[in-house]
Design brief:
By secondary structure, the chain is mostly helical. The protein has one domain. Helices cover about 65% and strands about 0% of the residues. The protein is built from ten helices and no strands. Helix 4 crosses helix 6. The longest helix is centred in the first third of the chain and has 25 residues. The two termini are about 35 Å apart. The C terminus is likely disordered.
C-alpha cells in the first residue's frame, strides 16, 4: 500500500456525507436546503431534532477516527502518513467527492481524527469547547477556539508531523467557519437551542443536489 493510496482512502472515508444521509433517512430531504445549509450536527439539531443530530455527530467522529486508524494500519504507523491521513479525512468532510466537493465544516471529523492521532491533546481542547459552549452557547465559537488550542497541546506531547496535521486541520476548520465568525461579529449567530426553519439557506439560494440521491 503506497502512502498516496493510504491518504486517498482516508479522504474517501472522511468524505462520507453522514449528515446528508441522516437527513435523507429522517425524511427531510437534502439538509443543505434547510437552516444554515450545512450538513453538520448543529444544523441537523436545529432542523431535524436531537436524534438525527446525535447520529450525525457520532457518525462524523467515527469516520474521522476510522480514517486515521485505517491510515495507521496501512502505513505501518509511519507518523508522517498517519498525520496526512488526519488532514485528508478533515478535507474529505469539508469537500466531499460525493457532494460535488461541498460538505461540512470539519469539527466533528477533526475531533475523531485527533482522538486517534493526538488523544492527550484533545483533552484540553475538549475542555475549552465545553466551557465556551456552556458559557456563551455558540457551538461555532467553541469549535473554532478548541481547534486553535489543539495544535498547542500537540506541540507539547507529540512529534512534529502530528503537530503540523493539527495546525493544518485547525486552519481548515477555522476557514470553514468564516461565515459563522462574521455572524458572531454582527450579533446574528444562532445560539444552541435556537431552531431553524426548513427553508433555503441564507441568501435564498439552494445548494445544488449532490451525486448521492440522484
Amino acid at each position: 500500500m503506497t502512502p498516496l493510496a493510504a491518504v486517498g482512502l482516508a479522504y474517501l472515508v472522511g468524505a462520507i456525507p453522514v449528515g446528508y444521509l441522516v437527513g435523507r433517512m429522517f425524511g427531510i430531504g437534502d439538509i443543505r436546503r434547510h437552516g444554515s445549509g450545512n450538513i453538520g450536527a448543529t444544523n441537523l439539531l436545529r432542523t431535524a431534532g436531537k436524534l438525527p443530530a446525535v447520529l450525525t455527530l457520532v457518525g462524523d467522529v467515527v469516520k474521522g477516527a476510522g480514517a486515521v486508524a485505517l491510515g495507521r494500519a496501512l502505513a505501518a504507523a509511519d507518523d508522517r502518513i498517519v498525520a496526512a491521513c488526519a488532514v485528508a479525512a478533515i478535507a474529505g468532510n469539508c469537500w466531499s467527492v460525493f457532494l460535488r466537493f461541498r460538505g461540512g465544516k470539519g469539527g466533528a471529523t477533526g475531533l475523531g481524527a485527533c482522538l486517534v492521532l493526538v488523544p492527550w491533546a484533545v483533552l484540553p481542547a475538549a475542555l475549552v469547547w465545553l466551557v465556551v459552549t456552556f458559557t456563551f452557547r455558540y457551538v461555532s465559537l467553541a469549535t473554532v477556539m478548541a481547534s486553535v488550542c489543539l495544535p498547542l497541546g500537540a506541540l507539547l506531547l507529540y512529534p512534529w508531523p502530528s503537530v503540523l496535521a493539527c495546525a493544518f486541520g485547525a486552519a481548515i476548520v477555522v476557514a470553514r467557519h468564516r461565515d459563522n465568525l462574521a455572524r458572531l461579529t454582527a450579533g446574528t449567530e444562532r445560539r444552541v437551542g435556537e431552531r431553524a426553519g426548513r427553508e433555503s439557506p441564507p441568501g435564498g439560494r439552494e445548494s445544488p443536489p449532490g451525486v448521492i440521491g440522484r
